[in-house]
């Protein structure tokens, strides 16, 4: 699971235009990958404007915005 999340972030970073005004990014992961998705330091996610969306099997979504980490 961790390697998949690392790949996800790598793909995001390759395509991100962090200099663009008003652009925010989202990472959507299953609940099982929550810990792996939050291994990226909160300060890094905040600087890159990345919000993590954690989705469970019933489709409920937990939004983990930069600055609101567990």
Your description of this structure?
The protein has 70 residues and is of the alpha+beta class. The protein has one domain. It has three helices and three strands. The chain has helices at 2-15, 34-37, 42-48, and strands at 25-30, 50-55, 61-64. The protein has a three-stranded mixed beta sheet. The radius of gyration is 12 Å and the shape is globular. The model has no long low-confidence stretch (mean pLDDT 89).
Q: What is the averaged pLDDT score? A: 89
How many helices? The count is 3
Structural class: alpha+beta
Helical proportion?
Answer: 25-40%
Task: Tell me the β content.
Answer: 15-25%
Strand order of the largest sheet: 1-2-3
- Element-level helix/strand string: HEHHEE
> What value does the Rg take, in angstroms?
12 Å
**End-to-end Cα distance:** 19 Å
Shape: globular
What is the domain total for the residues? 1
Unreliable spans: none
Largest sheet report: 3 strands, mixed
Strand segment count: 3
Short description:
This protein is of the alpha+beta class. The protein has helices at residues 2-15, 34-37, 42-48; strands spanning 25-30, 50-55, 61-64. It has 3 helices and 3 strands.
